Amino acid sequence: MPSREMSVLRRRPLVRLLKTQFSCALSRSYHSYDHRPYNPYTLSQEKILSSALQYVQEFGFVKQSLVQGCRDAGYLDTTHAVFQDGLFDLVKFHLYRERTKLAALKPQIDEEEGKSIGKRVRRYCIERLKGNELIISKWTEAVAIMALPSNVPLALEELAKLSDEIWFLVDDKSADFDWYTKRASLAAVYSSTELYMTQDNSPSFEKTWEFLDRRLADVRNTGSTVSSLASWTTFTGFASINLLKSQLSRG
């Protein structure tokens, strides 16, 4: 059997699993128009994690960043132990913080991009991706952490929340099956673009924005969704293995 067909067959179980996990994530991430966004962090947690993120550019998504965050926030070095998910808590906080920043941009984006839903969706994707610029050289570490089996469900849930937030901000009122399709498609586009960005050395990430435009066009023309999410999961698996190897080589 041709290798291409074998590849498709091997991917099918992953696609089925991903469909199930992402559907569950979407069901948990429904954006209410009647309630204020929930903040899952205490003031002390926000203080520590915000301080820790300032060290990610230098140290990466590693324990040292959390320790430095505790020191800067006025706590003992060992305070990082209160975060039960360890480094994943640092990754989740970055995802949460950058996602929740998007709402403040709505007046500006509505004015600059007009009524076009497509233009506004693209703009929100770009603004969110820009939130990774300062730590983009360390982002594969975050991807590897998210790819750990115990972390994948919450990583997909956060991705679903981001997709839902963007559709909410462009005033999407879908209430049928199209609601799920739109969010899954956008999540696939965003996740693949985020991965592309980690390898982009072009000025001001011009190639990344071009890649984003192509992926958005793919969705409009073919409705591709699951294959992109499958690629994200495959990439994260390889990233976690490579990160583990590099850590072992350093002793």
Automatic annotation (TrEMBL):
Keyword vocabulary terms for this entry: Ubiquinone
Highest taxon of the source?
Eukaryota
Could you tell me what this protein is called?
A: Ubiquinone biosynthesis protein COQ9
Q: Which organism is it from?
A: Lipomyces orientalis
